[in-house]
Design brief:
With 255 residues, this protein is α+β, with helices and mostly antiparallel strands. It folds into two domains: 2-43; 49-254, no CATH class. The chain has helices spanning 2-31, 34-46, 139-142, 218-223, 237-247; strands at 50-58, 61-62, 77-93, 96-100, 105-109, 117-120, 130-135, 166-174, 183-189, 199-204, 210-216, 231-232, 250-254. Strand 8 and strand 9 form a beta hairpin. The radius of gyration is 28 Å and the shape is globular.
Length: 255
């Protein structure tokens, strides 16, 4: 019985010591502003990333690969591939930079739905009225050596060290195209003068976190002379001209 009493006293003492230690730890944590750390974590959970969703358009309609874009006698059109780089994203408010994405390279592929939503996790609750980005890869990146991630050459968007990255890959079928099987290929790129094809795009944006970025391919196909130019596979003045048409065909809307 004496031993049992001692054991009970020992357990009670340990319990009291545990309560005292916990109370002291709580007080110390308050003094060291641990609550601020917890609050920051909670705020991070409440933050919503700024998301930029992409859609490809033609004649006012959302398009998908292998979907007939235009069906009329002698004038059918469809896309097999639409893949391109957007890079160097900058967000501005009243012409002042409020956020610039680091290592900003995104390969958008109409075949990969996951690639069509760009999340900017480091920029929550950001106030901006313009976005600026490039269609393609800048010359500095080209000469920096082979990269990984979206810049990995295995993604199929790299020619060779002399020519560098393909900024835009647009392939498909047009009944007006005189090639075998009526197929066209436009691989637009080039980083050396006089065929620097990367384009800078600046767009005003509505005040929304989730935005919709659209590329209207109508102007591009209206400019194609199928009999004269239905394939581009290397840097050229035509690649620069078509890149400018595409760059001017982007728009942004509230989602």
């Amino acid at each position: 019985m004496h031993k049992i009493g001692l054991m009970r006293k020992g357990i009670s003492l340990l319990f009291l010591l545990g309560v005292a230690f916990g109370t002291q730890a709580f007080v110390l944590c308050q003094q060291k502003d641990c609550r601020g750390v917890w609050d920051q974590g909670a705020m991070r959970d409440r933050h919503e990333e700024m998301v930029l969703h992409f859609q490809a358009m033609f004649q006012g309609k959302i398009i998908a690969l292998e979907e007939p874009l235009r069906i009329s006698p002698g004038d059918s059109l469809a896309l097999h591939t639409l893949r391109f780089y957007l890079s160097n994203f900058v967000f501005l408010k009243n012409d002042t930079v409020v956020f610039e994405e680091k290592n900003s390279y995104h390969l958008l592929d109409l075949e990969n739905e996951n690639s069509l939503s760009l999340e900017f996790e480091e920029a929550p609750n950001m106030d901006f009225d313009h976005i600026q980005f490039k269609l393609g890869i800048d010359s500095l990146t080209h000469i920096s050596g082979v990269m990984g991630g979206d810049l990995d050459p295995t993604k199929g968007m790299f020619w060779a060290w002399q020519s560098g990255y393909i900024n835009v890959k647009l392939e498909g079928f047009s009944e007006k195209c005189p090639t075998r099987n009526h197929e066209f290929q436009f691989h637009l790129g080039g980083y050396l003068a006089p065929f620097q094809s990367v384009q800078t795009i600046s767009l005003s944006v509505p005040k929304r976190k989730n935005l919709l970025l659209q590329l209207d391919l109508t102007p591009f196909f209206e400019q194609v002379d199928w009999a004269k130019k239905n394939s581009i596979m290397s840097p050229s003045k035509e690649a620069v001209a078509f890149s400018k048409i595409l760059a001017n065909s982007f728009s942004v809307h509230a989602k």
